Amino acid sequence: MRGFKERMRVDKALKLYFKKANLKKLDSEKVDLLNAYSRVLSQDIIAKYDVPHFDRSAVDGYAVKAENTFGASTTNPILLKLVGSVEIGEKPDFEIKNGEAAKIATGAPIPEGANAVVMVEYTNDLGDYVEILNAVSPFKNVSRKGEDVKAGEVVIGRGEILQPQDIGILASLGIREVEVVRIPKIAVLTTGNELVEVYEKLEVGKIINSNNPMIYTAIKEIGCIPISLGIASDNPVKIERKIKEGLRVADAVVVTGGTSVGEKDYVSVVVKKLGDLIVHGISMKPGMPTGLGVINDKPILLLPGFPMAALLSFYTFMPKIVERLLGVEVLKRKGEVVKAIAKRRIPSSSGIRTFARVIYKDGFIEPLRTSGSGVLTSMIKANGLVVIEEEKEGIEEGEKVEVVLTRHL
User: Strand, coil or helix: what is 147?
Assistant: First the structure.
């Protein structure tokens, strides 16, 4: 076997490959909202209306004019006349005037004339009247119209990998289908005279084709659609025919075996004939015979025949190629825990476990300003959560913390 003239470092190989291959992003398709999870958005989502589209109560209590409560306390209760009640899903048909109040449920629309809600804990219901035991400022305990999303706002930008919280905000905007990048199809071919399929009779000198089902499922694991091309014997004509078939039905082709520089290692020869073998020989062990090529603007990955080397090489290179096809760069993945330093203090209440929504970037976090658990966009704008335990009273500026990533970065 002839040796490789040059073995390239992994990072250098990827850089050279992407520079020369000039891979193009896949086209788009429309999908139903319920099937959009984990897909790459190919359009900006612009809100057509405010969310919420009306002022609503953030608590159970009494809708009031805030100025009517000024000075109220447990020792100086203010008496207001009850003129009605509003349940969630109802539209109030009355107006709150000076000296009046209305019982209201969490999420119910604020009646005309009211501009605040007193929590039920700070009131006494007397039947026709209610005692107010605590003053409220204007719009206290009120989720304002457009607080979550304002009409005309770009809610989710193209290139985002859609997460459950994104699906929720899309639904709240009345969006039933979205435009996403098509899922890449990847064909896998295994080469070798010694190979037989798992359902065939195993004779002396033959080996069951384990690479094909292994890489097939690895393609599934990285979110792509696998297509098996089966086995091609060590024959350049048959290998070429199979690779051409893969190029017709898929967006990329993976070939295992026949990628070294021996007398019957024909895969590199075929790739050079059909297109361009940009990199061949990687400074990694196992996996040195790995090759990166392009045919008809489609990537082709050459993997060694040994199963472990094939799988490691696949994981090293194919996800990066898929990122180019999808137009995203996944540096860290959802669910990963990373260390970070707080750029400013994050307050919390003693005795309460707090899940602080934060923006993580370059090893630092900043808390996201939120106004309640109902603001869904806080989970869209945030990309991490910091759990502040009950016994702590916040995170101090400069403190090192663990961040649970809530979306792909």
Answer: coil
Cβ-contact 195, 206 below 8 angstroms = yes
d(CA 407, CA 404): 9
Q: Which amino acid is at 37?
A: Y
What's the gap between Cα 310 and its chain centre?
28
Across 55-99, the runs of DSSP E, i.e. the strands, are 56-57, 61-64, 78-86
Tokens encoding 390: 């009950």
**Interacting residues of 407 by C-beta distance below 8 A, sequence separation 6+:** 160, 161, 163, 165, 334, 383
Distances from the Cα of 355 to the Cα of 117, 119, 294, 367, 402, angstroms: 26, 23, 46, 11, 12
Helix H segments across 298-392? 307-326, 377-381
Closest CA to 387 of 399, 401, 377: 401
Helix (H), strand (E) counts: the chain: 7, 25
How many residues are present in the chain? 409
**DSSP code of residue 347:** -
Token code pair at residue 188: 């896998």
The tens digit of pLDDT for each residue in 94-144 reads 999 999 999 999 999 999 999 999 999 999 999 999 999 999 999 999 999
| 201-240 per-residue burial string, b: 16 or more CB within 10 A, e: under 16 | eeeeeeeebebbbbbbebbeebebebbbbebbbbeeeebb
For 271, list phi and psi in degrees, rounded to 5.
-65, -45
Residue 297: which residues within 8 A CB-CB, separation 6 or more? 22, 23, 24
Backbone angles phi, psi at 371, to 5 degrees: -125, 25
Q: For residue 178, which phi and psi values (nearest 5 degrees)?
A: -135, 160
Q: Chain-wide mean pLDDT for the chain?
A: 89
Q: Are 356 and 395 a contacting pair, CB within 8 Å? A: yes
DSSP string covering 281-320, please? -BS-SS-TT-EEEEETTEEEEEE-SSHHHHHHHHHHHHHH
- At residue 326, the 3 state secondary structure works out as helix
pTM, to two decimals: 0.73
Question: Nearest-CA neighbor of 215 among 133, 290, 293?
Answer: 290
Residue 105, classified by CB atoms within 10 Å of its CB into exposed (0-12), middle (13-18) or buried (19+), is middle
DSSP 8-state code for residue 257: S
3-state secondary structure at position 154:
strand
Decide if 405 contacts 338 (C-beta within 8 A).
yes
